[in-house]
């Protein structure tokens, strides 16, 4: 009789992370993995392969309002925070990427068919590295809500997608940041797939101290990799909803 080689398994923290199969979020039913997740060891290739270094950053990569000749339409905002481990220790020099819809809720993406204008001055993508204290900052415009076809009259709350890379391209985590008091939370299965007590970890904090007079509102959003305050991250392979 053949026996399957045992491999180290991957255990999700179900107290924080959403279940892989969440029927209210209809596409998870079709795509969630039926087998247990396997922890793939990091080998020489993964650990020594080239990574995206800070020398590749352009001057406006973290200012999404300054990537074209004109300013994008919308509420200008600063989004900042820290990348931390579960002990509150900052994680320096890590690549953080964001992508988002424009102020009307439209992505610059071939598959986005939402009947709302693209903004010629807004691509909706940015990247930066955390500094020595694990801090990051983006300047952007507040994304709009957008409809999708998950259920009748479904609308995604305003959100910004975040990606964090570790020391190799195989070490990547993806999540979404929301804004305080969004009236669309109640009907959003992506947000509500996260256990109730952990949802606040996905909501940024309005930061009046960092608001810049005559320029921009500010929101603070810390990304925490492990521990009781860990940010709920998405399963690899989730799409951009
Ligand atoms: Fe989205």
From TrEMBL:
UniProt keyword list: Dioxygenase, Oxidoreductase
Organism: Nocardia tenerifensis
GO biological process, one term: 3,4-dihydroxybenzoate catabolic process
Keyword Zinc listed: no
Parts of the chain that traverse the membrane: none
One Pfam short name: Dioxygenase_C
SUPFAM superfamilies reported for this sequence: Aromatic compound dioxygenase (SSF49482)
Every Intradiol ring-cleavage dioxygenases domain range: 79-107
Keyword Oxidoreductase tagged: yes
Family: Belongs to the intradiol ring-cleavage dioxygenase family.
Protein name in UniProt: Protocatechuate 3,4-dioxygenase beta subunit
GO molecular function: ferric iron binding; protocatechuate 3,4-dioxygenase activity
